[in-house]
Amino acid sequence: MVSPQDIRKYSGVKVMYSHEAVCRAGVILMHCPHGIILDVEVLNGAESPVIIFNMMMRFMTEAPGLIIYDNACTLMDYCFKRAPGNFKHTVFKVDRFHFCNHTACSEAFSVEKWPPETPVISAEDIVHIRNFAEKHNIQLPATIRPITYGDARHIPGFEDSIPLNTQITEQNNSQLRHISTPLAFMTHENYYFYMLYYTFRFNVKRMSTMFGVGEVEMLRRMHESAM
Amino acid sequence: MEVDVYELRCPECAHCQPYDGLAAGVYNYSNETLFTENVPKGLYTSVSKQARTTKYGFHNAMKEVYERSSSTFVCPSTFNKAMVAYLTVVKTNYKDGMTCSICRCLPAKKQCVLFDGLWAGVQREKMRRPIKYPYTDIHRPNINVNKFRIVQEQKARELLKAYTKKEGLQPDQMKTLTAYLSATSMLQFFQYVRSFEAPNLLRCPPAFEDFIKALASNSNGLALVHREAMVNFNANGAALCMLESWITHCTPNNPLSMEDKDEIRMHFPALSALLGTCSLEHIPVEFHAVMVSHVFCTEDAQGPKTKNSRSYVACIVNAAPNPQAVARSGEHGASVLGADGCRHNLLALRTQLPIQMRQAGSLRCRQTQRQSRRGPVHQK
């Protein structure tokens, strides 16, 4: 019996795939540890540390203290070679999910190998946050908990802390992945508009959970603050 | 359904105020086509949720609904334009919507950001030149990224690349590179650590020269040691005093006491972990006992006894603080002999060190592992 593979093999028919139809790689999203999307950058090519570097330079006046990225080892080299002065206080880490692939990298890139009580947002920082928000009239959630590298709730003084969720990016992406199908059929301008709008609405939903209010109420608050 | 749309005209300037209808739950697209707000909201729901409906698919669904009631729906192109225009009309505060209210109150040095890519491609044939974001003026000032490149010269970058790859540089090249990089403290530190003069520049004791050299020649070692911690390691002098006291007092006949070992493990985890990163041949003999002591000290808590350096480091990091050692250092005031001839309290010294050094946890390089995995190199 002749199999379909044999027919395809001997008939001289080539299956032609349209490589042109599929397109650019996608977007890079910048998150904060609370799950808010801070910035979106559309990729014109493959994902690389260059994009991350440019995002940080354009978005932030100073480099952040902690950067978590799949390819943090390469990103660290890139950043130190380009702008070492900006990144001298920055710690680079690989998220827990991808660290198992970094077989030739230092274990210092792992979040888990560090002491679990290492603070990301410490109790002193929360006091600073409260004071800053009061001074600049910024609304904050009722409860803000310290964030540590690992689960440090068994350590005295860290009972109310929460471990850093390095998978927050993957978790958000799994929700935003639904829009990838409709976006693939849009023009470039519409792509930008829709992507931004969906990330905005995603943030509103996340913030409404943080503040303990409804999504509509959160939108209304934002409209009022914009006016 | 047919409705009448009226415009409001200003009696003074004759300016015409079009009716947008948003207050009444109506979206006025072009005075000829009006949608109820359920249409754009329904589009958002169907597109962004599990259904993954495209705009054309949603239009077809709406068209069928209208045809059932023997009325017509707009054509796909008008519908598409109307929905895009709705996004520009609807009130969206991108400034606050794309900002975390908690993290914005922190200084940049204490902020944490996470990056990840999302596959959401757009067709290549529809790609155009980059478009500015709607909130560019607020969040994304147009900054020339190249200005931030301290190493702007291509030649300097090439030299630096050769230098970091350990290809070696001629003296004149090294001089050129040093001139380029002299303005940056970070790269000076790179030079400090990476060059063979690192032991002299760090003023380390002679017994530690091999150790520091091994650290300097290790490319991943830069990631192992926190930069500031290493600089302060030298600047503060506390750790150096401690090392000197160790070298002075520790001999094979007079090894470190158990209390000292506990205190080292407790108060200088960075140093303990550093010792775990290198092979035994690079570490002074005096410290072998310290390393072994870590294994013995942690075996009770960690279960099976192991002398593998990797598990040793993991034990060090994961080991809970020993309350007995803390109490001992507090009660007896354990001290070390400093370079000035005075004895310093260990706990006091520890508090002077930066937190990065105290927490420079698991520091180990797998370069040796990688080499061993590849197997011996056969020369042709």
Structure description:
The complex is a heterodimer of chains A (227) and B (380). With 227 residues, chain A is of the alpha/beta class. Chain A folds into two domains: 4-111 and 164-222, no CATH class; 116-163, no CATH class. Chain A contains nine helices and seven strands, in the order H-E-E-H-E-H-E-H-E-H-E-E-H-H-H-H. Chain A has a three-stranded mixed sheet, covered by helices on one side. In chain A, strands 1-2 form a two-stranded antiparallel sheet. In chain A, helix 3 (72-82) links the parallel strand 3 (66-68) and strand 4 (91-93). In chain A, helix 2 (49-59) packs across helix 3 (72-82) and helix 8 crosses helix 9. Chain A is globular and about 50 Å long. The relative contact order of chain A is 0.10. Mean pLDDT of chain A is 81; it is low at 15-20. With 380 residues, chain B is mostly helical. Chain B has two domains: 21-97, no CATH class; 184-374, no CATH class. Chain B has helices at residues 38-48, 55-68, 76-89, 94-97, 136-139, 154-164, 171-181, 185-194, 198-201, 209-217, 221-224, 227-236, 238-249, 258-267, 269-277, 285-302, 309-318, 323-332, 346-352, 355-358, 367-374, and strands at residues 8-9, 16-17, 26-28, 34-36, 112-119, 335-337, 343-345. In chain B, the strands form three sheets. A two-stranded antiparallel sheet of chain B has the order 1-2. Chain B has a two-stranded antiparallel ribbon with strand order 3-4. A two-stranded antiparallel ribbon of chain B has the order 6-7. In chain B, helix 14 (258-267) crosses helix 16 (285-302), helix 14 packs across helix 18 (323-332) and helix 15 runs antiparallel to helix 17 (309-318). Chains A and B meet through strand 1, strand 2, helix 2, strand 3 and helix 3 of A and helix 1, helix 3, helix 4, strand 5 and helix 6 of B.
